[in-house]
Amino acid sequence: MAKGVNKVILLGRLGGEPESRQAGSTTVANFTVATSEKFKNQQGEWQERTEWHRVVAWGRLAEICKEYLHKGSQVYVEGRLQTRSWEKEGAKQYTTEIVITEMQMLDGKPSGQGGYNEGTTSYERQQSSAPPFSAPPSGPLLENEKDDLPF
After folding, report:
1. What is the pLDDT of residue 107?
2. What secondary structure does DSSP assign to 25-59, as a single string?
3. Cα dihedral angle (74, 63, 95, 15), rounded to 10 degrees?
4. Is residue 98 situated within a structural domain?
């Protein structure tokens, strides 16, 4: 049996430009992501609530975030919650942040500027020379490609 699950998935917009720094030989990027929800209040009027999330990326993912994400960019991130504490002027300070392990950019970039074209979403696709989306092969299935599903 699993001991626990610590997973966060967010789809939102950046609240500002990512900030990066070096921690030894590793790059660290910090930024905020805003998520919003619309709901009806007790009077039946629509209202919107926005939550702000602190996000941290490490290593190559941090470098990609710093280079390609900008204020207002729509982004999908996955990671885990982490709470840190430190002392400041004798008082203990706390922050909870999302340490991301995956990121997908949901905004396209004009193709003349390098980087990503409209429809290319995953940071992993930048390093691949394959097209971002490929159509399934057409024609009849070969004998070894058939599945044994009853429907």
Report:
1. 84
2. TEEEEEEEEEEEEEEE-TTS-EEEEEEEEEEEEEH
3. -30
4. yes
**Beta carbons within 10 angstroms of residue 57's beta carbon:** 28
User: Collapsing DSSP states into helix, strand and coil, what is residue 92?
Assistant: strand
Give me the phi and psi of 88, to 5 degrees please: -140, 115
Confirm whether pTM is higher than 0.85. Answer: no
Total domain count, the chain: 1
Q: In sequence order, what are the beta bridge partners of 79?
A: 8, 100
Can you give the residue range of the structural domain that contains 32? Answer: 10-36+46-125
Asked whether the beta carbons of 127 and 114 are under 8 A apart, the reply is no
How much is the pLDDT for 37?
Answer: 94
